[in-house]
Write a structure and sequence with these properties.
By secondary structure, this protein is α+β, with helices and mostly antiparallel strands. Helices cover 18% and strands 50% of the residues. It is built from one helix and ten strands; from the N terminus they run H-E-E-E-E-E-E-E-E-E-E. Strands 1, 2, 3, 4, 5, 6, 7, 8, 9 and 10 form a ten-stranded mixed sheet that branches. The termini are far apart.
Length: 153
């Protein structure tokens, strides 16, 4: 009888561990934020470039994008294009909130990543990397495809 009890106890512990703790461990290791459709609008003559992407948040809480850097550019800053009647201007932004179970577009005419002082020759067809830091401590090293203005639809 004690062998059956021990076998049953071992089986119960195994099931509890597999169903109780494994999903939590997997969820803890998964990243809540992802980047899709990331690209950079390249301009000639070392002019500043602009980066665009969609940030997706699968977590239950909003998360802020709080810093951007790049090993390919000396400066990477988050800006927003603001319309003021008949004119537009770029305003530096300290953070961008990605809503819980939602997404936010960094797209032409709105938010964009201003990229200045290329550290190497960058041309259409290249890939540059941007490091995105979030308020929850998560960091993403994301590839951005470099496109010429003619490649943009």
């Amino acid at each position: 009888m004690s062998i059956k009890k021990n076998t049953f106890a071992a089986l119960a512990c195994t099931l509890a561990l597999s169903f109780g703790f494994a999903p939590a461990a997997q969820a803890a290791g998964a990243q809540a934020i992802s980047v899709k459709d990331a690209w950079v609008r390249w301009l000639p003559n070392n002019l500043p470039a602009a980066g665009y992407a969609t940030l997706v948040n699968t977590s239950d809480k909003p998360v802020d994008l709080v810093d951007i850097s790049s090993s390919d550019y000396g400066d990477a800053m988050l800006h927003q294009t603001v319309s003021n009647g008949s004119s537009q201007k770029m305003v530096m932004v300290d953070k961008l909130t990605v809503p819980a179970h939602g997404q936010v577009a960094i797209a032409p005419g709105g938010y964009h990543v201003m990229l200045e002082d290329a550290k190497r020759k960058i041309a259409p067809g290249d890939t540059v990397r941007l490091k995105l830091k979030f308020s929850d401590g998560e960091t993403l090293d994301a590839p951005f495809a470099v496109k010429s203005p003619a490649q943009i639809k």
